[in-house]
Design a protein that fits this description.
By secondary structure, the protein is of the alpha/beta class. Helix content is about 35%, strand content about 25%. It has a five-stranded mixed sheet with strand order 1-4-5-3-2, sandwiched between helices. Helix 2 packs across helix 3. The longest helix has 17 residues.
């Protein structure tokens, strides 16, 4: 499935304010319906997490996890915020964490990814 991207600060602010929040040790996931058939994703990795090389690697890993996911319900905006614990992130850790958060948000069925 192809994902759109959130780029404007007003889009992020709207999701932070109105969206539902799910979190674990590595990520915070904000979810808000968008009344379209598109899934749009925004990523936030602050300087608290690490230097630019580490932050960019985390973003690449998160994007790759979403590329590999199937059966995510359409019509939502997602913002993934990386926490400081994500600095030494491995792909499988990110996949498990994001899949778990999507299950909790009822956006994918348990046992599927």
């Amino acid at each position: 499935m192809k994902y759109g991207r959130l780029r404007k600060s007003w889009q992020f602010r709207r999701i932070y304010r109105r969206g539902n929040k799910y979190f674990d040790r590595l990520f915070v996931l904000y979810v808000l319906p968008n009344n379209t058939e598109e899934i749009r994703i925004g990523l936030t990795v602050t300087k608290k997490v690490g230097i630019s090389v580490q932050r960019n690697r985390i973003k690449r890993v998160i994007r790759e996890v979403f590329r590999s996911l199937k059966d995510v319900k359409p019509g939502i905006d997602l913002v993934v915020v990386a926490r400081k614990a994500a600095v030494d992130l491995k792909y499988l850790q990110a996949q498990d964490s994001i899949t778990h958060l999507l299950h909790r948000a009822r956006l994918i069925e348990p046992g599927r990814d």
